[in-house]
């Protein structure tokens, strides 16, 4: 049996507690008006959702999620990247950072990561790569984990698949050069995060902001963030160097 040496952490709803639907509504409410000089709000939002869905459904390893989004979005609105992307990038670089009010950060996130690092584990921030790097960095700051030395952080620029596609996890272990069996995926979504278990990873279902549905999958461990901190400190073994 492989010893777990790499811990993969989901961000939204896990290290960064939030109601995902509430966050998404607030995020759209801020983003959509910023694009009104280019598209009617209802047109922009409709195509944003469609192109995001294209990213989620993509299975082409040759295209990053960013490329999939742009390849779908721009032709659909008869737009040019040079017209749309400066406004989109400015939003993510600036105003997106104010959306911390839509989340409930906890010091447990940093404590968990630091405890795992102290024991020698390699850490990965396995957040669903629907956002650009700038938006992910904001959310890492909100969670208090911006200085954690993650071996890899998934964003839409560097990823070719999204959750719940098992290839999202497969791509990650290939980039890291590790076996799935030596990894544990830690997240709050009983389908999107636990599907990592189908590759042979152990899983830990975090229940503070639990997302469940009709496609729920089995887990190896389960508990709150406080339970997870105790698990890392007292149950996970030190990694021999």
Automatic annotation (TrEMBL):
Pfam family for this entry, one: Hydrolase
Signal peptide extent: none
Recorded GO MF terms: hydrolase activity
Origin: domain of life: Bacteria
Gene3D superfamilies: HAD superfamily/HAD-like (3.40.50.1000)
The entry's keywords: Hydrolase
Database matches in PANTHER family: HALOACID DEHALOGENASE, TYPE II (AFU_ORTHOLOGUE AFUA_2G07750)-RELATED, HYDROLASE, HALOACID DELAHOGENASE-RELATED
NCBIfam families on file: HAD-SF-IA-v1
Protein's UniProt name: HAD superfamily hydrolase (TIGR01549 family)
Upper classification of the organism: Bacteria, Bacillati, Bacillota, Bacilli, Bacillales
């Amino acid at each position: 049996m492989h010893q777990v040496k790499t811990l993969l952490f989901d961000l939204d709803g896990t290290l960064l507690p939030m109601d995902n639907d509430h966050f998404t509504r607030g995020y759209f409410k801020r983003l959509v008006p910023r694009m009104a000089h280019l598209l009617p709000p209802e047109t922009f939002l409709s195509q944003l959702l469609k192109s995001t869905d294209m990213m989620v459904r993509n299975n082409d390893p040759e295209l990053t999620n960013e490329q999939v989004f742009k390849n779908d979005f721009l032709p659909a609105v008869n737009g040019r990247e040079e017209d749309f992307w400066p406004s989109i990038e400015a939003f993510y670089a600036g105003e997106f950072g104010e959306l911390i009010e839509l989340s409930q950060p906890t010091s447990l996130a940093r404590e968990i990561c630091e405890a795992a690092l102290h024991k020698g584990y390699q850490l990965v921030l396995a957040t669903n790569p629907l956002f650009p790097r700038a938006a992910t960095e904001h959310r890492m700051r909100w969670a208090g984990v911006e200085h954690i030395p993650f071996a890899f952080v998934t964003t839409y620029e560097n990823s070719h698949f999204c959750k719940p596609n098992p290839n999202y996890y497969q791509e990650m272990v290939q980039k890291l050069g590790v076996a799935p069996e030596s990894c544990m995926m830690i997240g709050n979504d009983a389908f999107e995060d636990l599907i990592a278990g189908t590759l042979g990873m152990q899983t830990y279902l975090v229940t503070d902001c639990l997302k469940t549905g009709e496609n729920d999958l089995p887990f190896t461990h389960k508990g709150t963030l406080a339970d997870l901190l105790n698990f890392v400190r007292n149950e996970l073994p030190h990694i021999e160097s």
